[in-house]
Amino acid sequence: MDEGSIILKTINLRKYYEVRSKILKRVKQFVKAVDDVTIEIKRGETLAVVGESGSGKTTLGMVLGKLLEPTDGKILFKNLDITYSLPKNLLGKIRLVFQDPYSALNPRLKIVDSLIEPLQIMNIGRKEAIEKVAHYLQLVGLPESYMSYYPHMLSGGQRQRVVVARALITEPEFLILDEPTSMLDVSTQSQILRLLRSIKKEKQITYLFITHNLVVARYMANRIAVMYAGQIVEIGGKSNIFQNPLHPYTRTLLSAYPSPNPRSQWNPIIPEELTVKYYENKCRYIDRCSLKMQKCEKNMPTDIKVEEDHYVKCFLYAET
Ligand SMILES: Nc1ncnc2c1ncn2[C@@H]1O[C@H](COP(=O)(O)OP(=O)(O)OP(=O)(O)O)[C@@H](O)[C@H]1O
Ligand SMILES: [Mg+2]
Q: Domain for residue 56, yes or no?
């Protein structure tokens, strides 16, 4: 494996949703769910994307997973431009797992048929497909006999295992996991997370792991990207982000992170005002920032490199 090489890269990626103003229906407004995102994801790593609800995590995952077309920008997968189409030889190489194992499986299909489905577009014959189903069920810790079950016969955790098997069956190189365990109870959640970690090790897949749970991000990731109002406001190695959070928003998020020391005071800073404004010529975090300066009113911050593998969009760290 070519360790450290870039598997997926985005350049100024944007996804805007058009919404109509409630009062002036003719006026177009845009939710800039993903706005000017330029990232590089290394082969074999797990990049966690964290941020509050509405920050654009799912939209980013869906654009990278080719379920949504971007408004602008580029996506390169293994140096190939896949922004608008995926070449045939890359079919199945990027897969997604979503939060809800209940809606992810067709209730009328037996598990075997749900698992075979993604192989059909790849022209894999039924016999080979069934062998793969048996292998992947075993990989996710389910007995082969579950092939003939229907989803309603499975628990939430078992269903999510099937959903993971369904994503893996096409042998993806890049897996996007969008809150894959947040609907499961705590013990099932940790079983699935452990499973995902061991699969990653065995299959050497690259993960984009979307979560609002920092404990999960810390357990799963090598690097962390913090999203706010459609932008990646801070990105870096896990220890850089956890030990040296720089963006005021990252610090707020981490203030809500439970300390391993039970004696330490836990005083999360929870913002009162949650409406996000997609400013173009000032910092988007300005209305919530207690450290704002004059220049934050006049310009939008761009990425500043503060140390190796650590970038932040904040004027506090600008030299001039
Ligand atoms: N189809 C759509 N049409 C219009 N706006 C949308 C659409 N899908 C998402 N949005 C908006 O885009 C923004 C980003 O949504 P997204 O679902 O990507 O956020 P998220 O970070 O995944 O949030 P959560 O943590 O709640 O899952 C939100 O303001 C959301 O309301
Ligand atoms: Mg989401």
A: yes
